[in-house]
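Handoff note, outgoing to incoming analyst
You'll be picking up this chain. Sequence as last confirmed:
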Amino acid sequence: MCYILNKMIFYMISNVFDISNCLLFKSIYKMGKFVMKKYILFLLSVIIICSLIGCINFSTSNNSPINNNDAFIISKLEENDTQLENDNSNMKTEEKTMNILIGNKKFIATLDNSKTVDELLEILPMDISMSELNGNEKYYYLPKNLTTNSYKPKEIRKGDIMLYGNNCLVIFYKTFPNSYNYTYIGHIDDVTDLTETIGLGDVKVKIE
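Most recent structure output, in case you need it:
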């Protein structure tokens, strides 16, 4: 009887112990699960905050003022653009032209940018009588000598204006091969009707 009673008491104590263990394990598990969720949420919060800070820093760095090297390069590019615009403006400003009136016909010549041309323009306007030569040119001896920079062009073009020697102004009204030295003065822009207008023989010309 005592043996059976002891067995029963042992069995009851064992069951209670098992139950308490089970309850204890479940409590620990629930507590760990709760703590784990809190830990995971904390980590996610940290990651999100770090990402936002990184984006803000990146945006700030992109919007930050340019550094000295970039500023120097941009300054140089702007300076080159300004210089190019000034050069183009000067080229347009320095283009020289001359009007040649023969009878009622007006021809416009674009002139070379040279000291010879500058000296020629100083003695304009002038009304002159140009003499015929070789059936392809008219010439006139200027009242003063001009600076020369002579060369031998392979071909004379219709409308060329040249200086022969240092004081002979020549207007060519035909195209032909050449073997003489001239200093280039300019060229008549539109040579339409030039041959017919300038005609044969001497001709009265106004140059301005």
